[in-house]
């Protein structure tokens, strides 16, 4: 009898316990008279899906448990994908079939099921990533909960959060008026932030337009990098609207886009384009070469990390970009501070450094302040990732940095404009001086010709009074010398004319740097030409230096489309050996003229060789790869018998020198195309005997 009583007591205990469990497990409520808002956490049972990819059919074999740590009112850092199931039993104790709204927060994936017999029916699915609907997508996060009067239904909610920070998870039941009130509160809360973002986007668009206009007017890479930086910020902040409930986003049809341009945007804007802009804006390559190399390598590394982040997001590994950004952020703190200190010490000598430093410090302090605001609730790594949801402090820092950078670009544009104006004024002054010099030289040459003509007439009259033999000898000698000087006087204006044409070309092309160098070398040639015009013979060393300067000018005029080489026999004493002044220059000039116009040769080649063929004989060879004599005559519009005035003058000079000094200067011109050479061109051989 005692045993029977004990068994009855145990049965009553288990029945009561089971009834208590069922009572706690099921939410019994009159849905028709339900409160406005009901916290259902005590009635929620959960199951963690740790990478098992469970299906609804498999859940019947697994046990759900209560886990109060699953719920949180603030954002929570996830070390990996958070995949969980929530189960809720609801009994409608009223006599009306009424619906409530079950709300748990804004999550990446939400699947809402109701049990129908032994099967589960999917009522709705939504999520920040899954949903690809229209502008009403945010309305679907309120999940409908309908229970007929007097019946009990079981609901399942599958929540998947792949992003690094999980939004608040607080399950509540709301009636329709309360949900509308909640929606309006959310709308009013985020509307202010949306207005700030729209204003910021408008200002950034203005900044980008200004930089593009300035780049068109003054092609400078710093404007291009600044425009890329602003464009990255525009897309970044435009995508922030996608995270604001009930706002109209520009990219609502592509919900994954905001994740692809989340952490990669921070790396692109705050590191990649920032380093490229600083490199070009401060002209680090010329001023600070070591810092320029460091900026370049860090920028290349960041570009690779951006590609890794995008690939990781594509694979669903949303935590990897946050980890990468954390290492980049902390790894660059001290180097950036060192760079700021180094630049601050040299800001007096480089005024643009101040704009760069002030803009960088504004963003640096804003990022650090935003990081400290998120550090407490989210932890170290997730606080950095939360910079993708910028605070007002970060927005202010970005705006100040953009304004400082744009002001620096305007100031830099002003400096460049002043420098160009000053350079143009100097070039104009120098050009006017050269014109005056040309005018004076022409006057001197005219006077020289008149004086020499008068001298010829006077000498003729004197020679007529002398004996016939002596008169002939003196007449021939003086006449030859005077003609030689007259020929040299003709060479000078011919050469000056060609050089001034080249200078005019550079000035018209606004290539002021080459124009200045050309003017300097041209001044040297003018002095040497005047000096050589007073002498019949000069040293071979002076002639080589003269030709080097002349060919350097011609190489600049042809924009490095010609190459030349002067080879001297080591046995020749160039400082002691003398040759007639201005004898070789016309042939070199002619080789440059026809050697650089060969369409089959992209680069004109000119070789000048000096060989000691005998103890008293110097050989000079001038060889080019031009079109040759025959083709030059075929293309020439002048009469076929016409010859270059410079070459004709030099040929006449050689005859006069032979007659006056009894020398045997011999000149031979060879067309390569007529002598079975493998390439076209001209060879000029000049034999100069030593007196």
From TrEMBL:
Q: Where is the Signal transduction histidine kinase internal region domain?
A: 483-561
> Short name of one Pfam family for this protein?
7TMR-DISM_7TM
- Domain named 7TM-DISM receptor extracellular: which ranges? 42-163, 195-412
> Per its record, what are the GO molecular function terms?
kinase activity
Q: Which SUPFAM superfamilies match?
A: ATPase domain of HSP90 chaperone/DNA topoisomerase II/histidine kinase
Q: Give yes or no: UniProt keyword NAD.
A: no
Where does the signal peptide begin and end? 1-23
Q: Which residues cross the membrane?
A: 194-216, 223-239, 259-282, 294-314, 320-343, 355-375, 387-411
Residue ranges annotated as coiled coil are 427-469
Keywords (A to Z) from UniProt:
Coiled coil, Kinase, Membrane, Signal, Transferase, Transmembrane, Transmembrane helix
The protein in question is named: Histidine kinase
Q: What organism is recorded for this protein?
A: Chitinophaga defluvii
